[in-house]
Design a protein that fits this description.
Strand order of the largest sheet: 2-1-3-10-4
Low-confidence stretches: 1-37
CATH superfamily of the largest domain: Periplasmic binding protein-like II
Radius of gyration: 19 Å
Shape: globular
Keywords: Signal
Number of domains: 2
Structural class: alpha/beta
Protein name: NitT/TauT family transport system substrate-binding protein
Number of helices: 14
Largest sheet: 5 strands, mixed
Number of strands: 10
Organism: Phytopseudomonas argentinensis
Order of helices and strands: HEHHEHEHEEEHEHEHEHEHHHHH
CATH class of the largest domain: Alpha Beta
CATH topology of the largest domain: D-Maltodextrin-Binding Protein, domain 2
Helix content: 40-55%
């Protein structure tokens, strides 16, 4: 490959590496730092990219937190933030910059493990069950065993994101637990929109992307892009993306917390029972460049389940403890989720 066609995101990778170094320093400091407290009636929520955050789009569009807050006699001010990658989200939560974190089950398990006896971060609810695809535009890559040093695989956050953890889970199944991180050296941190554009365009060192909907579906519009791994085939139906918070926020803001969970449950019922209206909401709130018909093709199928009940998260938790990625072994999913009748009986 000529110098002129080298990977155009390399400078971005450099900046991301610097950001990761800063994030690790922030994480280390924030583990011991006191949480910034504020009164009932305020909530700051971090979301990321993709249809998997549609429940938050519904909550925002219909002002459901405000609605349920008023039922509790409370006027709630809601602040929405968009971040990319579990590392950035975890840093924001631990530094007190946000109250509710939206990220993968992988980042939740990481921060749950590291904050026991401190901030005691736990899951609040699931955002639903969705298949995630590992994609490639390299015709030689049929399975994960075909990736080589010439390939680069985009993930939202190296090692921490749920995509990275799914890749490690697949590697352990392929080569054994001792080789669980065998493919980590090929991964790079890149937001889903950027990774999708690069994979579809081709001609760069980025030949893989562990994606999520709708980005994985948009990438597959290019006939050169194909599915290497489907997480439903790897684990079965599961909740890859969740919401979580510190124990302090939940304890200090019981009415706000209750209103948020009630709003989320109402949004899940709305989205699951009216996919057309859910699609309209997603397009209206995000401004996504996808047609309504294409969006409905993605979400109006039995594999997509909008629910606040966590599903099949424990196999990944058990795996991460087994390979030493987390130190504390959860006995069940209830160890890393707050107890709440509103989210039902998970797994």
């Amino acid at each position: 490959m000529s110098a002129g066609k080298r990977f155009p995101f390399i400078p971005r990778f450099g900046r991301l590496a610097s950001g990761i170094t800063f994030s690790l320093s922030l994480l280390a400091g924030s583990l011991a730092a006191p949480q910034a407290a504020h009164a009932e009636g305020q909530i700051r929520i971090a979301e990321q990219f993709g249809i998997v955050y549609l429940l938050l789009n519904v909550v925002r569009d219909q002002q459901l937190i405000e609605k349920h807050g008023k039922a509790e006699g409370l006027d709630i001010k809601v602040d929405w933030q968009q971040l990319s990658g579990g590392s950035a989200v975890n840093d924001a939560l631990l530094s007190g910059a946000i109250d509710i974190a939206g990220a993968g089950i992988g980042p939740l398990l990481t921060v749950w493990d590291r904050t026991q006896g401190r901030q005691n971060v736990k899951g609040v609810a699931s955002l639903g069950n969705f298949p995630y695809y590992l994609l490639s535009n390299n015709p030689k890559v049929k399975t994960i065993a075909d990736f080589t040093a010439k390939d680069r695989i985009a993930v939202p956050a190296v090692s921490v994101s749920v995509q990275s953890r799914f890749l490690q889970y697949a590697a352990a199944k392929q080569w054994g637990d001792k080789e669980f991180n065998r493919l980590d050296k090929y991964t790079v941190a890149l937001p889903h929109p950027d990774a999708t554009a690069s994979l579809k365009a081709g001609g760069t060192e980025l030949t893989g992307h562990f994606s999520n909907p709708p980005f994985q579906n948009q990438a597959l519009e290019n006939p050169d892009v194909h599915v290497v791994l489907d997480t439903y085939e790897l684990l079965g139906p599961n909740s890859p993306t969740v919401l979580y918070a510190t124990e302090k926020f939940r304890t200090d803001n019981p009415k706000t917390y209750k209103a948020f969970v009630a709003a989320l449950a109402e949004a899940a019922d709305f989205a699951q029972n009216d996919k057309g209206a859910a699609a309209d909401t997603y397009l209206r709130v995000t401004g996504a460049k996808i047609s309504r018909d294409e969006l409905l093709k993605i979400i109006d199928n039995e594999q997509f389940q909008f629910t606040v009940t966590p599903t099949n998260t424990y196999p990944l938790a058990d795996f991460l403890h087994r390979v030493g990625a987390i130190k504390n072994k959860p006995a069940s999913w209830q160890d890393y989720f707050f107890e709440d009748p509103a989210i039902g009986q998970g797994s």
